[in-house]
Amino acid sequence: MTTNSPETRRPGRIPAFLKEVAIIIVVALVISTVVRTWVVRSFYIPSASMEQTLQVGDRILVNQLPWPAVERGDIIVFDDPGGWLDSSVTQQYSPNPVLEFLGLVPADAGTQLIKRVIGVGGDTIECCDAEGRLLVNGEPIDETYLDPGITPSDIPFEVTVPDGHYWVMGDNRSNSLDSRFNTDSAGGAFVPEDAVVGSVFLINWPLDRIRGIGTPDEVFAAVPAP
After folding, report:
1. What are the tens digits of pLDDT across the range 147-158?
2. How do residues 89-142 score in pLDDT, each as one tens digit?
3. Is the CATH number 3.90.1150.10 carried by domain 6-220?
4. What pLDDT is attached to residue 18?
5. DSSP letter at 36?
6. What pLDDT was estimated at residue 74?
7. How far apart are CA 10 and CA 135, in angstroms?
8. Separation of alpha carbons 73 and 215, rounded Å
9. pLDDT exceeds cutoff 60 at 4
10. The pLDDT of residue 171 is above 80
11. Phi, psi of 197 (to 5 degrees)
């Protein structure tokens, strides 16, 4: 009769344990890749164009799912429609390979922008009424997300947004190369729906800045349909 001592069992059990660990790691990496590719991605805010809502150094999470649909007031990340970003700017972006692998920063963020949606397809946006407010479909809006002293726009304009596109503006209006300044760009002033990466829903870093980012429905509540 033979017996199995702990010493004789251990060599067979260690490889099995390592195999289980390897499977867990592979599954975790697959899930992480799926999540950051199609569900949620993390971005770093490099400029002041969205202050004070989003500040330089903030890290944000972006919902990449096709729902809910993009609405007026949402903050979106989108691919450069064409000519919005100067090549000297895009060449400066070099992501940390470790953070990129972990999904904490995207590999293509150097060709993407972040702005707030002011108008959707069919909307007419004008600047400005006698009180200096933007008008959307003839209705003035009080943009509560702008800091005191920030004017809705220093330049007058009137545009109608094509179907399937968005008119976007930064919250730091005097320091944002948004739709207003890209009418002559190769991609035009409007952001096409298929260029949208997703909508911002959370500031997740630094710790003292953690907060949800919602849609300011009250700002656009009185805006009529196009």
Report:
1. 999 999 999 999
2. 545 555 556 555 555 555 555 689 999 999 999 999 999 999 999 999 999 999
3. no
4. 73
5. I
6. 98
7. 74
8. 6
9. no
10. yes
11. -80, -45
Catalytic residues: 49, 115
Residue 203 vs residues 54, 79, 111, 145, 174: alpha-carbon distances, Å: 8, 20, 21, 15, 23
- Kindly provide the residue ranges of all beta strands, DSSP E only, lying in the chain, ordered along the sequence: 40-44, 59-63, 75-79, 112-120, 124-127, 134-136, 139-140, 157-160, 165-169, 191-192, 196-205, 211-212
From residue 222, how far is each of 42, 89, 142, 226 by CA, in Å? 33, 38, 11, 12
Tokens of 162: 């094509």
Residue that has been written with the tokens 């809910």 in this structure: 68
Q: Report yes or no: 58 and 209 within 8 Å, Cβ to Cβ.
A: yes
Rounded to an integer, the average pLDDT of 7-17 is 61
Q: What angle do CA 190, 145, 129 make, to 5 degrees?
A: 65
Rounded to the nearest angstrom, the gap between the alpha carbon of residue 169 and the centroid of all alpha carbons in its chain is: 13
In angstroms, the CA 119 to CA 73 distance is 8
Q: Tokens representing 44? A: 């770093």
Written as six digits, the tokens of 21 are: 């660990």
72 against 38, higher pLDDT: 72
For the chain, give every domain's residue range: 6-220
